[in-house]
From TrEMBL:
Coiled coil: none annotated. This is DUF4872 domain-containing protein. Residues 155-324 form the DUF4872 domain. It comes from Nonomuraea thailandensis. Signal peptide: none annotated. Residues 14-142 form the Butirosin biosynthesis protein H N-terminal domain.
Length: 327
């Protein structure tokens, strides 16, 4: 058995911030989950209904691994990434880091992991690996997946090699702090402004505040769009509220990030943005509840209500980001 010593195997709400927390705490930098999410400019929105998709997807964050890249760039971290199509090389990349006493992040498809409760393909899942023996890999995943967990080596290899939407080619990564501790407090305003500008300047109507408005127009037709409404709508609602989002489609995490920032930076614009995202978080939870109720009852009025709330959310988040971009 090979185990990295000194690992604080603390699970969080979201997979990528959970893994980042493990890697950075091992390097000596302990930041809260909302702070990791916010410094990585993680908040976004996408309404995705691609050809061949069984049901639309509402996403509330930037694409997988972009948060990690953003965070590393903001804090001046050395991000070392390895990708390969070779299973043998993929294992060597991971084992070499662990043998050297360093935890390693992995992007993989959660469908294959032995401990996962929901067998659904999701190629953007991220875990931290801190050890292995001849049978199992030792991982840290989110609280809802068990925190400190194990999976068989064959299952891990299959999860890493899976191809499809959001997957990577056996991606593994490590983070190294600079010789002088990063002044992360100096990066709060740039991270907030960068997130706001990207959200407001989204290039297509499926993204950002325009994407939320589009969802407001499309969601009322979801009973007709669904193959199995009693399955599809509650599942979509579950992903919004409990699918590793931290609640309210990541808006609760961003609300708490802005709250932490407001305690460090005395700027009324920051407090105004935080208040607006606190309002948005409540409304996103309301939307998910209405979508779930529509699927369970077949009542289209619930989806009409959800659409109206989404229209309001588009306005609220637009106003919040307009304020925050002026910091």
């Amino acid at each position: 058995m090979t185990i990295v010593q000194g690992i604080e195997a603390r699970g969080m709400q979201h997979c990528e911030t959970t893994a980042l927390g493990v890697l950075l705490r091992h390097e000596g930098l302990d930041l809260s989950e909302p702070m990791l999410f916010g410094l990585g400019s993680g908040l976004s929105f996408v309404y995705w209904d691609g050809k061949g998709m069984p049901f639309p997807f509402l996403g509330g964050r930037v694409k997988p691994f972009e948060l990690t890249r953003n965070l590393a760039a903001r804090l001046g971290l050395t991000l070392t990434v390895a990708e390969t199509t070779s299973p043998r090389r993929a294992w060597q990349n991971v084992a070499a880091a662990i043998d050297a006493g360093r935890p390693v992040g992995l992007q993989l498809d959660s469908f294959h992991l032995d401990y996962f409760r929901s067998r659904v393909h999701f190629g953007g899942h991220v875990v931290a690996m801190y050890g292995y023996d001849e049978h199992d890999a030792y991982l840290v995943d989110t609280d809802q997946q068990g925190g400190t967990v194990r999976t068989g080596l064959a299952a891990l290899a299959a999860a890493r090699a899976e191809r499809g939407p959001m997957t990577a080619r056996n991606r593994s990564f490590t983070l190294t702090l600079p010789s002088r501790p990063p002044a992360w407090q100096d990066q709060l305003v740039p991270a907030i402004r960068g997130c706001a500008e990207a959200f407001l300047a989204a290039p297509i109507a499926n993204l950002g505040h325009r994407g939320i408005a589009k969802a407001g127009k499309q969601v009322p037709g979801w009973l007709r769009r669904a193959g199995e409404p009693r399955r599809d709508l509650p599942h979509a609602a579950m992903l919004m509220e409990r699918g590793g989002t931290g609640g309210a489609l990541f808006r609760a995490l961003y609300r708490d990030f802005l709250g932490e920032c407001a305690g460090l930076i005395g700027d009324e614009r920051l407090r105004a943005g935080q208040r607006l995202y606190a309002e948005a978080a409540v409304l996103w939870t309301q939307v998910s509840a209405l979508i779930a109720k529509a699927g369970e009852s077949g009542d289209a009025d619930c989806l009409e209500q959800a659409g109206a709330v989404l229209e309001e959310l588009s306005r609220i988040e637009h106003d919040a980001m307009q304020v925050l971009r002026t910091l």
